[in-house]
């Protein structure tokens, strides 16, 4: 069989129907008379049939592409353990805090805190007449104090000795101070030149006294430490539960997104 | 499976979508690599490499046949592998027969419904075909596998190999002629339906 490459090509294309109509008619006419050509066509047909009869192959494994293979940034997979840990930690802390909150007798603490608060208020109310007077005295300028001492015998013409100041009966200056305090704004504090009016004005306004260090008024927050403690606990619980839920949800979404198809 | 949607998702970086495409095409891609390289390990490497390359270059896919596009990539991977082998020849770990050819495992052509005798004959025929394929020049082999095994038409095959239609016709005809010559001694292995007319 001496067939040219051109004839082989025509026969091959004829088998696949990839030949022009003109070439096909010409080839079919030759096949009727050329036995070699006809035999070659049958052999090629059989070869083609054998090749096409080969069963399809199955891949020995799955060729999934991972982020690592393609050099994709694995931000998700790197963040996943962090998120998971954060979620677990926040959950544990929340549970501990919640259990602690439930176990501690909160009502008793609340009652004691109120008692303390009331007691402190009473004490504050009782203290000023006793503690402020000497402080005011110390606030007076030394010269003015001396002047007051000199004036005292002149004013007291009866020359009677001054009674000892007692707690039950306030001394005259103290009584005067109380009177001024009671009259409040009516006292001519601004017009006073001996400084007493200024001190009285300071006494009438606790903030000024506090600023000058005369008295120490504790801030309102310090009077309620336990209430504030429970507020912190509440806020912490809310923060922890939100943190646990958001990080847990993010970790779950990340896991589902990066999961390889089974 | 909505192939276009999966391709678009994969282009956006969705590996899950791409891996669904891998599942759909891995048998064909592996088959192409195995028939061209005649080596399971080389075919395995070429297939994995082809899918990685496909994912990385997914933006260059301009529509048309995704199968043809994938087969072009794996064919190029096979050419690369063959060039590598030329530079660094290796010794196969597969056992060799008397003529020095590898004795491959014909598990892939086993049909569980066949009788043992038919199974053996089919295995022998499969081995004979693979041996004959191996002897073909790689350019002929690639075209023959694309048309006669993958079932592509000439245009698709021309697209895969990146050659004109006439070149594909010519290569295929020569490959078939050589295969016919090579398989002369194995015709008795053919089923009766194929022997008729010879």
Q: Radius of gyration of chain A, rounded?
A: 52 Å
Percent of residues of chain A in beta strands?
A: under 5%
According to DSSP, the number of beta strands of chain B is 0
Structural class of chain A: mainly alpha
- In angstroms, what separates the terminal alpha carbons of chain B? 43 Å
Task: Report the radius of gyration of chain B as a whole number of Å.
Answer: 18 Å
Mean pLDDT of chain B: 85
List SSEs of chain A in N-to-C order. Answer: HHHHHHHHHHH
What proportion of the residues of chain B form beta strands (DSSP E)? Answer: under 5%
Let me know the average pLDDT of chain A. 70
Give a summary of the structure in a few sentences.
The complex is a heterodimer of chains A (262) and B (198). Chain A has 262 residues and is mainly alpha-helical. Chain A has helices at 5-16, 21-33, 35-53, 75-103, 106-126, 128-139, 142-155, 172-183, 196-204, 206-211, 225-258.
Structure description:
- The complex is a heterodimer of chains A (262) and B (198).
- By secondary structure, chain A is mostly helical.
- In chain A, 69% of the residues lie in helices and 0% in strands.
- Chain A has helices at residues 5-16, 21-33, 35-53, 75-103, 106-126, 128-139, 142-155, 172-183, 196-204, 206-211, 225-258.
- Chain A is rod-shaped and about 150 Å long.
- Mean pLDDT of chain B is 85; it is low at 105-110.
- By secondary structure, chain B is mostly helical.
- In chain B, 39% of the residues are buried.
- Chain B has nine helices and no strands.
- Chain B has helices spanning 3-11, 15-37, 40-56, 66-87, 116-135, 138-149, 154-161, 165-182, 192-195.
- At the A-B interface, helix 1 and helix 3 of A face helix 2, helix 3, helix 5, helix 6 and helix 8 of B.
């Amino acid at each position: 069989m001496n067939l040219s490459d051109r004839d082989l090509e025509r026969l091959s294309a004829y088998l696949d129907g990839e030949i022009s109509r003109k070439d096909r008619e010409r080839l079919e006419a030759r096949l009727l008379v050329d036995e070699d050509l006809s035999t070659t066509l049958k052999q090629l047909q059989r070869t083609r049939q054998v090749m096409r009869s080969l069963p399809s192959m199955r891949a020995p494994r799955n060729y999934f592409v991972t982020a690592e293979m393609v050099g994709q940034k694995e931000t998700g997979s790197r963040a996943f353990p962090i998120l998971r840990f954060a979620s677990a930690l926040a959950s544990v802390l929340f549970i501990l805090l919640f259990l602690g909150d439930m176990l501690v007798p909160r009502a008793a603490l609340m009652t004691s805190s109120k008692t303390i608060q009331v007691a402190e208020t009473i004490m504050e109310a009782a203290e000023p007449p006793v503690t402020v007077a000497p402080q005011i005295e110390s606030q007076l300028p030394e010269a003015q104090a001396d002047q007051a001492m000199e004036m005292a015998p002149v004013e007291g013409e009866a020359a009677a000795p001054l009674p000892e100041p007692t707690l039950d009966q306030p001394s005259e200056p103290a009584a005067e101070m109380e009177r001024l305090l009671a009259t409040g704004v009516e006292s001519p504090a601004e017009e006073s030149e001996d400084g007493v009016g200024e001190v009285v004005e300071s006494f009438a306004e606790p903030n000024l006294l506090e600023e000058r260090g005369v008295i120490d008024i504790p801030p309102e927050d310090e009077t309620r430490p336990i209430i504030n403690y429970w507020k912190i606990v509440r806020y912490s619980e809310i923060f922890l539960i939100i943190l646990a839920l958001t990080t847990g949800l993010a970790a779950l979404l990340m896991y589902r997104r990066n999961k390889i198809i089974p | 499976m909505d192939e276009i949607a999966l391709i678009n998702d994969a282009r956006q970086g969705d590996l899950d979508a791409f891996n669904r495409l891998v599942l759909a095409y891995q048998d064909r891609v592996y088959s192409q690599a195995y028939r061209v390289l005649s080596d399971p390990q080389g075919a395995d490497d070429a297939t994995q490499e082809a899918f990685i390359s496909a994912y990385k270059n997914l933006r260059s896919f301009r529509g048309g046949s995704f199968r043809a596009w994938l087969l072009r990539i794996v064919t190029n991977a096979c050419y690369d592998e063959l060039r590598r082998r030329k530079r660094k020849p290796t010794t196969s770990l597969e056992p060799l027969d008397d003529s020095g050819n590898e004795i491959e495992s014909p598990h892939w052509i086993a049909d569980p419904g066949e009788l043992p005798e038919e199974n053996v004959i089919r295995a022998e025929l499969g081995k004979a075909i693979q041996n004959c394929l191996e002897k073909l020049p790689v350019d002929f082999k690639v075209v023959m596998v694309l048309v006669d095994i993958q079932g592509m038409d000439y245009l698709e095959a021309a697209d895969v190999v990146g050659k004109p239609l006439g070149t594909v016709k010519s290569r295929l005809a020569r490959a078939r002629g050589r295969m016919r010559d090579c398989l002369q001694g194995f015709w008795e292995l053919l089923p009766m339906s194929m022997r008729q007319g010879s």
